[in-house]
Amino acid sequence: MMGKIEARLAELGIALPTPAAPIANYIPFNVVGKLVVISGQIPLKDGKIAFTGKLGAGVPLSEGVAAARLCFINLVAQLKAAAGDLDKVVRIVRLGGFIAAPAEFTQHAVVMNGASDLAVEIFGDAGRHARTTIGVPSLPGDAAVEVEGMFELA
């Protein structure tokens, strides 16, 4: 039987991918008590980085938002691997966003809303979270966006 969160994903037309394997010396998630901390996820789709480059220097804002949304989908895939059942998620505690951009770019928060808005669409009020969003000069594989997260389980 499909759980509430799985049903919501289906309503939104979201199929979770196979969680990405780490590309360096780290683990994809760490469960500590009731918390799951998930390593940063880049906008992978079908094993390839779907959005590369820098916001404000060739990557349009709309693509940055889509990249953040895709990063969050990849976070949820890792979360399912960690929790087994997405209905165990009590709340999203925190999201951290890294936006590849030149120094003059100032719309980091708009880009990160791609992840934050989807969090609330999927998890409802439990998806409201604390957040940090910062600009960086580059990300692994020239990804445009990376998102990490912390989640509380029942």
Automatic annotation (TrEMBL):
Residues 6-143 form the Endoribonuclease L-PSP/chorismate mutase-like domain. Pfam families: YjgF_endoribonc. InterPro entries: Endoribo_LPSP/chorism_mut-like (IPR013813), RutC-like_sf (IPR035959). This is RidA family protein.
